[in-house]
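Lab channel / #folding
Pinned by the channel admin:
"Please post every new chain as: sequence first, then the structure tokens as a reply. Keep commentary short and put observations after the output so the thread stays searchable."

First post following the new format, from NK:
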Amino acid sequence: MDETRIAARRARLTGARIFVLFLTTGVPAAEALWPWQRGGHATRVARRRDEARAATALIGEPFGFLDYPSRRLRHHLDAAAVETGHAIAECGAEELWVPAFEGAHQDHDAANALAAQFADLVPVYEFAAYNFAGGRVRSNQFPDRRDSDRTLALTPGEAALKQRALGCYASERGNLKHISIRQESWRPLPHHDYSVPPHAGRLFRERFHWVPLHHPRIDFDRSDTLYADLGRWVSAVAARREPVFGDGPGSKAGEPDREFAGALDESERERGLGR
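Reply from TO:
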């Protein structure tokens, strides 16, 4: 629930505009649900988007929703990158914020790899959500420490607002108990090797891989396959040596989208928060 960041609200109070782009529906594909749940898939997606709008309204502004199912973003990174690039241009974003590369959720790690492709155009920051580094659940703490890490201690009022925003996600109430509301951590996006897991040992998303039944709420995708896919995509983008967001009108392959570059050059640009 990354649009609940108090850091974004503080920026908003100083005059920044915060836009949130949702890269997935937040709901697994219909075929991944129990058979008796599949007929209500559209209702689940609609409910999740209503929850997202309510949470975002407390912090920033929703920019848009993409239609990729939860746990499938890595299979749609080219298209998602195009949409993200267009969103950055339309918002005139000065910054891009993304969930940390920490093994929390595979879509978070895929989004982090996607955001890294824009680091030469706008500053990119990653924020800690949750991880399982060291064999224990860590909330709003990075799995590794760097000198560039920044920590924000929340006031009682801010903690209450964050709890209220998290509470907007009634459909995920059972999964949010581990989220701390005492502090937030973020940093400039480091150079990550997306072809390998973000830390040693079991990842957060692997905690229930021992369950014999393929429960819809558990991500059973193999991590070696997941990170191999991310590594190949990042390598392919680098090999193409072209903007991942596509060429603009009149531009040549390998040249920046002129419309996009122009948007970034505007004197009154506004901050963007990506998800």
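NK: The longest helix spans residues 223-240.
TO: also worth noting, The longest strand covers residues 19-28.
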